[in-house]
Amino acid sequence: MATLTAATAEGSLLNLGPHKLSALEYGILDRCFRGEAQTVTELACVLPGDASVMSRHVSKLVDRGLMGRTRLPKDRRTVRLRLTKDGRALARALAEELRTRQTLLMQGVSDVEQAAFAATAHKILANSQCPPRWGRRTDPASRFANTGAIDERMGNG
């Protein structure tokens, strides 16, 4: 498992390195680009890390001109995050690069095998008593739910 994790991370970091982004910073750009999070609190619900970690990384992205912050006129306590034009362009380009890397890694792995792997990984995380901190929307196993890909033979039916 450590080798698999390292191979996946290495591929991702190679793609992010030239842009001087961490994987978490890419995740922030990606979640905002896809409209899954518009505040630091929402980011902390869909990415691993608490609000203070998200806030520090958002500040770095703002300083680089990739993101902006806007206070809501009706509630000055709420700060909305938005990608700048450069941030949207970078998020779009990186998503394509990572999609290409994932396609290479998943070559020859069927949908059923992917579902079995996701189900197994989910069980291992549950057994470790360290379930993923991200929300249901980003849980890798959830994309296979109700598709018939996970069935009784895999112990999930």
Explain how this protein is built:
It is built from 6 helices and 2 strands. With 157 residues, it is mostly helical. A two-stranded antiparallel sheet has the order 1-2. Helix 1 packs antiparallel against helix 5, helix 2 (23-33) packs across helix 5 and helix 3 (40-46) packs across helix 4 (51-63). The protein starts with a helix and ends in a 30-residue tail after the last helix. Residues 133-157 have low confidence and may be disordered.
What are the secondary-structure elements, in order, as H or E? HHHHEEHH
Q: Give the fraction of residues assigned to helices.
A: 40-55%
- Unreliable stretches (pLDDT < 50, length at least 5) are 133-157
Q: Give, in spatial order, the strands making up the sheet with the most strands.
A: 1-2
| Shape, principal axes of CA atoms | globular
Please describe the biggest sheet, giving its number of strands, its sense, and whether it closes into a barrel: 2 strands, antiparallel
Rg over CA atoms: 17 Å
Multimeric organization: single chain
Number of DSSP E strands: 2
Q: Strand pairing plus helix content: what structural class?
A: mainly alpha
Q: Which percent range describes the beta-strand content? A: 5-15%
Query: How much is the average pLDDT?
Result: 78
End-to-end C-alpha gap: 25 Å
Question: How many helices does DSSP assign?
Answer: 6
Label this structure with key terms.
mainly alpha; 6 helices; 157 residues; two-stranded antiparallel sheet; globular
Brief description of this entry?
The protein is mainly α.
